[in-house]
Amino acid sequence: SYVLTQPPSVSVAPGQTARITCGGNNIGSKSVHWYQQKPGQAPVLVVYDDSDRPSGIPERFSGSNSGNTATLTISRVEAGDEADYYCQVWDSSSDLLVFGTGTKVTVL
Amino acid sequence: QVQLQESGPGLVKPSQTLSLTCTVSGGSISSGGYYWSWIRQHPGKGLEWIGYIYYSGSTYYNPSLKSRVTISVDTSKNQFSLKLSSVTAADTAVYYCARDIVATRWFDPWGQGTLVTVSS
After folding, report:
1. Is the confidence at residue A1, as pLDDT, over 90?
2. Nearest 5 degrees, angle CA B112-CA B116-CA B119?
3. What is the DSSP letter of A30?
4. Is A1 exposed, middle or buried (0-12, 13-18, 19+ CB in 10 A)?
5. CA distance B37 to B25
6. Is B37's CB within 8 Å of A97's CB?
7. Which among B117, B120, B110 has a CA at the least distance from the CA of B10?
8. Which residues from B are below 8 Å from A97, CB to CB?
9. Which among B63, B106, B111 has CB closest to A88?
10. Parallel, antiparallel, or unpaired for β B34-41 and B93-101?
11. DSSP-assigned letter for residue B116
């Protein structure tokens, strides 16, 4: 089955840039979606199709995808960005929806 | 704006069947173009996709749970449901329902989630 690997944690100071990676075999050939999950809440879509943002999501959230790594970038990090972040793809070969292992972003 | 809401027992005994319902408001399940999915999250862990159903009734399940999962739809009530049989403590989790776009396969929106504990 297709596996998506994320770093368990990322720490960043307010105002700086956080980069969260999502590794998978030839992930650049797939569309990657990213979710933010705050404690006790359901996940919220923050980036879809590698780099598009749903309405209401700040421009500070951006994404890229190439080769074996997709990246979610949070610019000018704020305290309110502290959350768990998950990447997700559809593995067409198995018709499975796969989530990454998740990354906890801590704002110092 | 479409909203989803899970409902069902918060406590299930081992070996019994877990049953949850997701009620969709602000839009019709029968409108097409969407799959309706169940996803779970074990306490303190990551997300696991369980399966989906189309309004026509066609389903697809995660092979890891396929032998125990049934997802059904009631278009007249604008609801879809999850049944997970022969549960054990390992099935204790927060269960979410979510809309999955057929063409693009991302989940939006999600229900708020409901914690189901398997315990005697």
Report:
1. no
2. 165
3. S
4. exposed
5. 15
6. yes
7. B117
8. 37, 49, 52, 100, 105, 107
9. B106
10. antiparallel
11. E
Q: Which amino acid is at A4?
A: L
Q: Which residue of B has its CA nearest to A54?
A: B108
- The pLDDT tens digits of the residues spanning A17-47 come to 999 999 999 999 999 999 999 999 999 999 9
Contact B46 A90 (CB under 8 A): no
* CB within 8 Å: A42 and B96: yes
A95 pLDDT tier (thresholds 50, 70, 90): confident
A82 near A105, Cβ under 8 Å? Answer: yes
Q: For the segment B71-111, what is each residue's pLDDT rounded down to a tens digit?
A: 999 999 999 999 999 999 999 999 999 999 988 899 999 99
Q: Is B30 helix (H, G, I), strand (E, B) or coil?
A: helix
Dihedral angle, C-alpha A10, A16, A69, B95, nearest 10 °? 50
Q: Are strands A9-12 and A103-107 parallel, antiparallel or unpaired?
A: parallel
- Mean pLDDT along residues B29-35: 92
